[in-house]
Design goal:
Two copies of one chain form a homodimer. By secondary structure, the first copy, chain A, is α/β, with parallel strands linked by helices. Chain A has twelve helices and 17 strands. Chain A has two domains: 13-48 and 305-402, Aspartate Aminotransferase, domain 1, CATH 3.90.1150; 53-304, Type I PLP-dependent aspartate aminotransferase-like (Major domain) (Aspartate Aminotransferase, domain 2). The longest helix of chain A has 27 residues, at 304-330.
């Protein structure tokens, strides 16, 4: 008799953003005239840049002629895209990554959640708290989490690394040595970036204990401080202990186009086995590539016009971030992030719980944010706003918040 | 210390089509002037139909304006596509499937390989022999296969259901009751279709023993015999025991666009748990949707023009299939399939092994096919040709084969 994967029974409630979406739908059903300002889910709002649109139109046309039609893509992704990525994201920063160390995919969410498959079931996983829920939930599904402790709001077999005001939201090394360490900088949800020195310390730590760092750099394009690392491979030795995830969603607005990539150096080995070869096998067996049209869109991100256009988009979002941060501070809020990331991490006022503040903002101000506690117990009492709205909406949101 | 998923060490060689691709690359490197005819991998060759191109151009333009831009897609896929699928694939055939029982994805390969995640590790898996390697390899990676028996060329913990000339390539019920049963009809690689009566017997069997049938219907568009089932949900009770996988790759040439869907009835429950809810959770947590542009392309497949255009494409491929089958028979080959599927399954001549015949065809005739043994021990002595070439190439392939 077929039976289910009982690890799923350990999952807590719905995926955070599904719960937020449900609450929003319910509010909209009851308040059809309300004009909601959505600063919750990290979705972009600016349209795809013209250079990228042109590339997609051209690729669509290619798909319509037999001599330029493209069927199944190469397993790792098209070489034109992998070469553009290597040149622009790595070699320009002096990082030695080869095109065949790039695995093109439909996005960092898929890769971040699938990567755990190639590691042993008994690997001990460390995550930040608060944390992007996908790292945790994918390991719950895989059976690495143990039972959920209702009181502590934590899984018994995961290592949580508190990211709090007192440590500046940069985790300390855990007391027990983990095998797999998820790090995300600039961070979602706190919006805090890590210095190269601190990241190097994590790489040194991982090398010392034989751990692998799963490094989510989806927000690197928002780094404004030139001294901060865009890639973990800027750190010495990272090629022997780290896997990096990148996304086109946040730098070029590809949330609805779906494109990302994972970088694994061929030097990364565990017990003599190539982790690169394992992921290549997984990628080739369980996935069939990102659409040709979308890979051409990704290539256009690196064209001179595309690059200029997406930089202008990022500047717009960061103008929002700066405005939100300054205005909230002026209004008496304690605010983090928003300088090298599109996320504002604010302390809820009057000791409100994160979900109470969510409900308050939704029902009294028509603003959708994301409750910090949805990212973990140390997110309780915090709230995430994104800079992905329009400037006008960001301004209006502040007016509404001031009027609470 | 991080350790690998050792189940990967049980994987045998490379994924079949990667090996074929490597041999082809090597041949081309050594024979730069040879004009290869590729009838191996099941990739299409006709360009995307005009109605679908138009839909994509329109969708690209929508992505370029703020008021029509689409970011993250709804978890299950856009309703416009799910509704079109339900209307055209199910309700027109009198099948009661709801739009929220459709999960839109980037293709059947991803879904077929990911679906096993929601079932218990100890579920006993039955596959046909020969079989599309993805069903096997995804279960090897998940640890359900046991060790590979080098002598038998089979995994010790999988149930293999022989599909041979003597049973007309339709498997008999296995001697030991499986928990998960992978079936694919019209079949890849044999090209053989199943009757409604035989499929109903499989549904009845699954209901009796409490198994779940994982039904890959990627090739249903090639069915020419009106009495044959296009969907397992044409069988009574299938909603309680079956999951169906569908693809836009073969009916509409989307191999390079990437779109498919999985159908799970909300009536399918195991130990009282909704399998639909589990897959919804998996889909929402570890995947972020097919691109908006591609979902619009899928919708256009069901427009009157789109439908007419893809039917013409299918007719072209089936003309190839019929030609190949007839010509090979005339040349003295024993040939199966090719009537309700785009695959020709032929017996190798003179008792050649499948790979020897592959090498012979590649080196002496410049034709790429797929060795039957790559699909399992009962594929030994067989060879798969696809009808996805052009008619001219199919004709030339036959001339070359005759000249061997």
């Amino acid at each position: 008799m077929a039976t289910i994967n009982e690890n799923y029974l350990n999952l807590q409630g719905s995926y955070l953003f599904q719960t937020v979406a449900r609450k929003v739908r319910e509010f909209e059903a009851g308040n059809p005239d309300a004009r909601l300002i959505k600063l919750g889910i990290g979705d972009v709002t600016q349209p795809i840049a013209p250079a990228i649109l042109n590339a997609m139109h051209k690729a669509v046309d290619e798909m319509g002629a037999a001599n330029t039609f493209h069927g199944y893509a190469p397993d790792l992704g098209y070489e034109f895209l992998r070469t553009a990525i290597v040149e622009n994201e790595y070699r320009k920063r002096g990082i030695d990554i080869e095109p065949d160390e790039i695995f093109v995919s439909d996005g960092a969410k898929s890769d971040c959640s699938n990567i755990q498959e190639i590691f042993d079931q008994n690997n001990l996983v460390a995550v930040c708290d608060p944390v992007y829920p996908v790292y945790v939930d994918s390991n719950v599904m895989a059976g690495r989490s143990g039972a959920f402790n209702e009181e502590k709001k934590l899984y018994s077999n995961l290592i949580y690394m508190p990211c709090t005001e007192s440590n500046g939201f940069i985790p300390d090394f855990p007391k027990i040595n983990p095998d797999l360490i998820y790090l995300c900088f600039p961070n979602n949800p706190t919006g805090v970036a890590i210095t190269k020195e601190r990241l190097q310390a994590w790489v040194d730590y991982a090398l010392k204990i034989g751990a692998v760092i799963l490094y989510d750099a989806a927000y690197e394009a928002y780094i404004s401080d030139d001294t901060l690392p865009h890639s973990i491979f800027e750190c010495s030795g990272a090629e022997y202990c780290a896997i990096e995830f990148r996304s086109f969603s946040k730098n070029a607005g590809f949330t609805g186009l779906r494109l990302g990539f994972t970088v694994i150096s061929k030097k990364l080995k565990l017990s003599g086995k190539s982790v690169h070869a394992m992921w290549a096998r997984r990628h080739g067996t369980k996935y069939n590539g990102a659409p040709y049209i979308i890979q051409r869109a990704g290539e256009a991100v690196y064209s001179p016009e595309g690059n200029q256009q997406i930089n202008a988009q990022i500047a717009t979002y960061m103008k929002n971030a700066q405005f939100l941060k300054t205005a909230l501070k002026d209004a008496g809020y304690t605010v983090y992030g928003g300088e090298n990331a599109p996320y504002i991490w604010l302390k809820t006022p009057n000791g409100l719980s994160s979900w109470d503040f969510f409900d308050l903002l939704l029902n009294k101000a028509g603003i959708v944010g994301t409750p910090g506690s949805g990212f973990g117990p140390n997110g309780e009492g915090f709230f995430r706003l994104t800079a992905f709205g329009t400037y006008e909406n960001s301004v209006e949101a502040i007016e509404r918040i001031k009027g609470l």
